[in-house]
Design goal:
187 residues, alpha+beta, two-stranded antiparallel ribbon, 6 helices
Amino acid sequence: MTKRLVPCDPRLTPAERLVHYTRIDPLSGCHIWHGSINHAGYGKLNVRNKSLAAHRLAWSLKHGPIPEGMILCHRCDVRRCCNPDHLVLGTRGDNMADHKAKRLAVHAGRAASGPDSARIYIVYRGIELSGDVEARMLAQPPSPTHALPDREPEPAPSAPEGARSSDHERAGAFGSAQARCARSGRK
């Protein structure tokens, strides 16, 4: 269950409302917008009966107005981020080229690393650790009896009274409804 933010006082300035509805992500440094969002996923707020994009307001408060013909590009690729340090001025062409380059880099990274690897982030005592990990099977996985020496392995469940062993196996693997369908010849 997510905690709903308390609506802010409408008498607050736009800068105070921006602070009220953002929370800083300690791992990425993004100022995540927790107010309402528009259809594209960007934060929005109303100022003097006009809907403004939260990230554009944050940029304008720190750097001044956005020049004509320019847009703001998120370096972090998080649409709800309002951190002006994560925003850079650019054109639509710059933004699309950046998007394409990042998408190609992700695909190249996946192809080079294989299907059983992933990027991992760990925060431990205020220190961020990150790196690539690869999953691999051990030569001989530990058996459950070695993992729990004081417990005996539980016996396998026996078939219910009057059931054929194949019916019981199907019921265990797929559930009783599918086992009944298998007995009747339905799919």
